[in-house]
Model the fold of this input.
Amino acid sequence: MNKERRGAGNWIPILSGFLAGLGLAAVLLSLYLNARIPVLVEDLMQPIFDEEARNRDIREGTILQEAIEKVTPAVVTVEALRREAAKPRSRFFRSREQEVLTLGSGVLVSEIGRLVTSYHIVSNAHSIKVTLEDGREYAGKLMASSPKYDIAVVELHNPGDETFPAAELGDSDQLRIGEKVLAIGSPFGTQINDPRPSVTLGVVSALHRDFSFLSDNVLFSDMIQTDAAINQGNSGGPLVDLRGQVVGITTIIFTEGGGSEGVGFARPIEDVVRILNEFNRFGKIRNSWAGFEAYEIRPQHVKYLGLKTQKGLLVTRVFAGGPGESAGLKKFDVVTAINGAEIGSRREASRILWHYEVGDLIELSVDRMGEVHELELTLVAHEESVP
Done:
């Protein structure tokens, strides 16, 4: 009896060890499965994710292709010939004229053959040739221009009353930083026997860029910055959104080597639309005029004129019979704001006034030796001005 009990007691440690081993195995299996299951799920989901990515790429590629196909028929190559004085070989020779060819791009904006390009391409040109995407060539005539904003309107010589593909104009005010855009143009000009334009893809890098310091004659303000490659020959071509709508006209690039370095700028299409509206309505581009001249305030102005403020623009001349005089503006007044927007430089004033057209009423906040006056001024066309 005791012998049997001793035999049964010997099984207890064995059973305990067996159970402990099962427990350890269960723990190890649990740890293995916890580590492996996410991998298995990821392996199972990977084909789904890859398929979604491929579909997304296909959809985006389709959108890009549709936008390109929609606008490229309206993109043209512009060649302008001008005569310039050649530098004489020595002081014993007279200067002579030489033919200079400028290449650029443009975009048709009406079915009658009217296009928009950069003014610097066609300025002072005695001959303009326009080549369409399909290879058709036409003589172009400069109809109107805005040198200040580097925009020109050219019309094709169309004796056969043909109709032309016209690009759809978008809304540059709705652009957002990071939005994808296309730069389309002819960087090769006529150097290759292929009139079809080139397309580059990028994003809107920044909005409302101001580079007015680059030129005394051209106002580079409120520009659209993009990293879409823009090269020489692209100037005047369209910047296009993914809807295939023109949102800007490419104008300048920042470069050290002469080629694209991912810093290009376009004139917002809203500016171009205003110019087109002026031309369509009046047959020319009228420049608005306020009838006075004003400059930044300097310390000597404050000292010698006894000015009560150092912020604003000092009026140095009011033209007789002009809108400034009619509004009651006087010499040595300080214009501190235009329509409630404070100004401290001529550039700021120009940028504000650009958004108003001939006939618009603007309100000037004026400091006159410490007294504040609110004056109403109606802008007139420059040719109506009194010299």
